Amino acid sequence: MEEQPGEGETLRPGYKIWLEENGRVFGEGIGDLLEGVSRHGSLSRAAREMNMSYRQAWGLIRMVEDRLGYPLIHSQAGGGRGGGSHLTPEGETLLRKFRLFHKRAEAALNEIFGDIFGD
Amino acid sequence: MEEQPGEGETLRPGYKIWLEENGRVFGEGIGDLLEGVSRHGSLSRAAREMNMSYRQAWGLIRMVEDRLGYPLIHSQAGGGRGGGSHLTPEGETLLRKFRLFHKRAEAALNEIFGDIFGD
Predict the structure, then answer these.
(1) Which of A12, A101, A117, B89 has the fewest CB atoms in 10 Å of its CB?
(2) Per-residue pLDDT for B83 more than 90?
(3) Sign (positive/negative) of CA torsion A64, A68, A73, A78?
(4) Would an 8 Å CB–CB cutoff place B7 in contact with chain A?
(5) Calpha distance A80→A72 (Å, rounded)
(6) Is the distance from CB of A115 to CB of B108 less than 8 angstroms?
(7) Contact between B16 and A20 using a beta-carbon 8 Å cutoff
(8) Gap between the Cα atoms of A29 and A25, Å rounded
């Protein structure tokens, strides 16, 4: 939608938040993917929901696991129900903490912004 | 430097903060450029310090001014001392508020991170 300069919108804060350890390691992307695994019990369904290939999703998780030094998901191949993937306890804890960090950070940034830029 | 997975570093927060108005409008880049103009009284010197061409720097400032709807710098061409550029009062105010927002946001994010991820 075209907007006139200086009209139709007011100034607001923008931000992106992630975690670093041996480089950028955990952000919205891996967070959403792990949440999908948790919800569906399946990495391939979680990947599809994010328009990623299974290979991409698996590669992302392995890269993050390598940097962190511990597993985030465990997968069972085959079997009567065709296997599945679940978060490890460490994966669940990290996801929960990241979500909390993100939520509290968002609230703090909005409050600080209001203090400084509010009329 | 190569690091072993999970060693040599601990988890820490990462973030990028900016202002939005009709799109992403004001962040570190334009902030540093305006600070350089304020320090040097010269857009070309400020640009050079950031390894930008004068044209790039001028284009960035015009884009931000268009989105905000007010001028950030005013320039005097020629004259005995070869002209120069200075921040407008609105430009000074915005830069000062952005720096304060950034500083307070950084402190808040570190504190929240420590609360959640600290041992």
Answers:
(1) B89
(2) no
(3) positive
(4) yes
(5) 24
(6) no
(7) no
(8) 10
pLDDT-based confidence at residue A3 (cuts at 50, 70, 90):
very low
Which of A13, A20, A108 is closest, CB to CB, to B12?
A: A20
| B51 has a chain A CB within 8 A of its CB | no
Contacts of B115 in chain A (CB under 8 A): 104
Provide the ipTM. 0.85
The backbone torsions φ and ψ at residue A34, rounded to the nearest 5 degrees and listed phi first, read -65, -35
Q: Region B73-93: what's the mean pLDDT?
A: 82
Q: Does A55 touch chain B (CB under 8 A)?
A: no
The DSSP-derived string for chain B is ----TT-S---EEEEEEEEESSSEEE-HHHHHHHHHHHHHS-HHHHHHHTT--HHHHHHHHHHHHHHHTS-SEEEE-STTTT-EEEE-HHHHHHHHHHHHHHHHHHHHHHHHHHHHH--
Instruction: Give the pLDDT of residue B2.
Output: 47
- Please list the alpha-helical segments (H only) found in A1-119: 28-40, 43-49, 54-68, 89-117
When pLDDT is cut at 50, 70 and 90, the band that residue A8 belongs to is low
User: What integer is the mean pLDDT of A73-77?
Assistant: 86
Predicted structure pTM score: 0.83
Give the tokens for residue A20.
């670093």
The residues near B72 (Cβ < 8 Å, ≥ 6 apart) are B34, B61, B64, B65, B87, B88, B90, B91, B94
